[in-house]
Amino acid sequence: MKVLLVDDEVELVSAMAERLGFRDVDADWTDNGESALAMAEETDYDVAVLDMKMPRLSGLELMELLADRHPDMKFIFLSGHGSEADFKAGCAAGCNYLIKPIQLEDLVALIRKVAA
């Protein structure tokens, strides 16, 4: 299983990738949507974990672009803002949504669930 993490908080996303690796989840990361699109052209990701609020390209916008180009890719949304509107938008797009701060074990369980 290959996972793409996209979050504009570099320290968070890099630490998350490292910690997922300790749990046998192979994860690449980036801090922006444009880079994520390029990475997805080079590597087949099973799951993308996307921050809802990022500059220039939101998690929902990125999901739409990735899903169009990679129809088998599954998505999980993360948000530190946790608004009801974000939650509803995330659910409408797939209903795999965690609010920051997340527990890594919750993320691992959700990654394995959506990838199954």
Short recap of the structure:
This protein is of the alpha/beta class. It is built from five helices and five strands. It is globular.
State the total count of DSSP E strands: 5
What is the end-to-end distance? 10 Å
Major β-sheet strand ordering: 2-1-3-4-5
The assigned CATH architecture is: 3-Layer(aba) Sandwich
**Rg calc:** 13 Å
C-alpha geometry:
globular
CATH class (first level) name: Alpha Beta
Q: N-to-C SSE series?
A: EHEHEHEHEH
DSSP summary: helix tally = 5
Largest sheet: 5 strands, parallel
Could you please describe the fold and organization of this structure?
The structure is a single chain. It contains 5 helices and 5 strands, in the order E-H-E-H-E-H-E-H-E-H. Helix 2 packs parallel to helix 3. It is globular. It has one domain: Rossmann fold. Helix 3 links the parallel strand 3 and strand 4. With 116 residues, it is an alpha/beta fold. 47% of the residues lie in helices and 21% in strands. A 5-stranded parallel beta sheet has the order 2-1-3-4-5, with helices on both faces. It starts with a strand and ends with a helix.
Give the helices and strands, then pairings.
Blueprint: E1 2-6, H1 10-21, E2 26-30, H2 33-42, E3 47-51, H3 59-69, E4 74-79, H4 84-92, E5 97-99, H5 104-115
Parallel strand pairs: 1-2, 1-3, 3-4, 4-5
Helix pairs in contact: 2-3
List keywords for this structure.
116 residues; alpha/beta; Rossmann fold; five-stranded parallel sheet; 5 helices; 21% strand; Sig_transdc_resp-reg_receiver
